[in-house]
Design goal:
three-stranded antiparallel sheet; 3 strands; about 60% helix
Amino acid sequence: MATVEIDADKLIKAATRLRAIAHPLRIAIISLLTEHVTLSVTDIYMKLNKAQPTVSHHLTILKDHGIVTSSKEGKQIFYSLHYDNILKTLESIDKNNY
């Protein structure tokens, strides 16, 4: 029987990102961002019919965990998905990679 080598650091990072994603509102935000390349905070909270502070809080969590990126244009902040980090997370938990 072959031994399995596990990169614990990659798995811990993946688990942390998955926990950040695992919230209904954050999943809804990610879903919106898969349909639109970039959205402003205003666009997101209006489309989700949620309070701006609530949406901003969840966007901050997603950003802190590398799930979304942001850019500022004037007073508006725009968010988009950070696909590279999402793919790295999925690859970390793919059984073929450990």
